[in-house]
Amino acid sequence: MPHSGMNWYHMDWPSGTVQGGQAITYSFWLPGSWDLFAIEVLMKTLNTAGTYVFTAKNAAAASVLSTASFDMVGSLVAATPTPLTLSGVPVAFGVREVLSLTLDSSDVLFDGTGIQIGLLARGH
After folding, report:
1. 99 close to 36: Cβ distance less than 8 angstroms
2. Cα Rg, the chain, nearest whole Å
3. DSSP character for 79?
4. Are strands 82-84 and 91-93 parallel, antiparallel or unpaired?
5. Global pTM?
6. What is the distance between the alpha carbons of residues 25 and 2, in angstroms, rounded to a whole number?
7. Answer CATH for 7-123 from 3.30.1490, 2.60.40, 1.10.1740, 2.60.120
């Protein structure tokens, strides 16, 4: 689905941070208005203990996914990028409107190493 002027933004999540038993949120925006075309997630080593949930919300706290959240425990194949279904394509954002990405773990021993998130977005 490549479009002219679109870029993938990849990040390791949460780089070197112990996540066990807490939620970590990353906020993303562009200086102008922008469109989100895709989100994909990857977990190098699968988490098998507790719950591990990914959410993606706009400034109005509404999910930009087709569901309220994505189950990272039972839905992934190790080290394989998994595309998530958005609420619409593209999801439009206004000037500096924030996209909040949250990973929430219930397992206090989970370290979050090897989590990657990719965003396909285009600024206007």
Report:
1. yes
2. 14
3. T
4. unpaired
5. 0.86
6. 27
7. 2.60.120
Distances (CA, A) of 19 to 2, 47, 66: 33, 12, 26
Structure confidence by residue, pLDDT tens digits, 20-67: 778 888 888 878 899 999 999 998 888 778 888 999 999 899 999 999
Q: CA 97: distance to chain centroid?
A: 16
Omega into 90 within 30° of 0, i.e. cis?
A: yes
Tell me the C-alpha distance between 79 and 29, whole Å.
27
* Sequence letter at residue 62: A
Quote the tokens at residue 90.
């593209």
The domain limits of the chain are: 7-123
